[in-house]
Amino acid sequence: MSIYWNHRVKNLSPYIPGEQPRQGGLIKLNTNENPYPPSPKVIEAIQKAAGDELRRYPDPACTELRSVIARRYAVMPEQVFAGNGSDEVLAFAFGAFFESAAGKQKALPVLFPDITYSFYPVYAQLWDIPFTPLPLAADFSITCTDYKQRSGGVVIPNPNAPTGQALSPSALVSLFRFHAQDGEGSSVVLVDEAYAAFGKDLEVAPLIHEHPNLLTVHTLSKAASLAGLRVGFAIGNQELIEGLCRVRDSFNSYTVDRLAQAGAVAALLDAPYYEEVNQKVIATRDRVSSSLRALGYEVIPSQGNFICIRSLQKSGPQFLSFLREQGILVRHFPKPRIADFLRVSIGTDAEMDRFLEACERFRAV
Ligand code: PMP
Predict the structure, then answer these.
(1) Which atom of ligand 1 is nearest to the CA of 227?
(2) pTM assigned to the model
(3) How confident is the model at residue 103 (pLDDT cuts 50, 70, 90)?
(4) How far is the C-alpha of 242 from the C-alpha of 240, rounded, in Å?
(5) Ligand 1 centroid from CA 221, angstroms
(6) N or C: which end of the chain has fewer CB within 10 A?
(7) Which residues form the pocket of ligand 1, taking CB atoms under 6 Å from any ligand atom?
(8) Ligand 1 centroid, distance to 31 Cα (angstroms)
(9) CATH number for domain 40-269, candidates 1.10.8.50, 3.30.70.360, 3.40.640.10, 3.40.605.10
(10) Separation CA 327–CA 26 (nearest Å)
């Protein structure tokens, strides 16, 4: 606490990102990064962009990047917004579409799962938006019907993190319809597709043509192996995209730098490379999930590039520190119902074999 902080800052409880260790030699399975390198075409494009042109500001509208995204998702460039990682896009979306307690008497709460990406409540708090976390079912799935109630908006990560469970596109469509039904009372349904590329037929972005209240949010951090570049984007009807631009341009017009724009364009144009890489991640996830179950661990079925697992004998913190001693970093969330689980990002086959060996040893500890 500081006497210089204003009321708003005093009341924040900021997001705590996963550890980025300085020491080498660790197997890093804690922040859902892709274990494979970005496409060589991305590196080439960034190297080409790293020249004299850096004197100049980047294109604030990210014109080329937006048109490449538009082609990929069969939408118009006016229906695409690009930002500095999807964290930024999410922060802008909360500010643009969900009502703050100060903005409207009796603002209805935004709905999202109780066990989910822990940045959502932080954004809500930052913008003073009321929210209601809705409990996941006993099997950690999202109960779609719970979200069919009047609200200030809905945020669904699909697949959810850290559980890896996903809703079907048809279940999501029923939510878009429900929340579009009563004019003034209609609200935005935000689908965070950070991990959708690792699932089976989950993408709903092309449905924006039929559902004006749908905003999908995407990132190049996971499926495009570019967490270090910081590029995310949103797809939605033109009015929603304009709303995001209004927030961005009241904050910082140049959120995506020249190198990031060049690298992101090259990544989106090299779909075959990423298709191959991500199929490998999926195959490894499925293999490791079966092996862990055979060793007696509980594994929540996952459609992401991570799995959520539990030892039936020992606590989450015990499991976490054992893995740490073995040089393996994973993520633990000290929260009710998932405190005994660990979220393990899918690494290369060699890394996951080391992880499986450690899990085998842990049974004997
Ligand atoms: N959404 C979800 C569900 C996530 O897990 C993450 C990554 N931590 C993000 C969004 C943000 O990703 P980035 O800012 O790297 O695009």
Answers:
(1) 15
(2) 0.97
(3) low
(4) 5
(5) 7
(6) N
(7) 85-87, 117, 157, 161, 192, 194, 219, 221, 227, 232
(8) 9
(9) 3.40.640.10
(10) 5
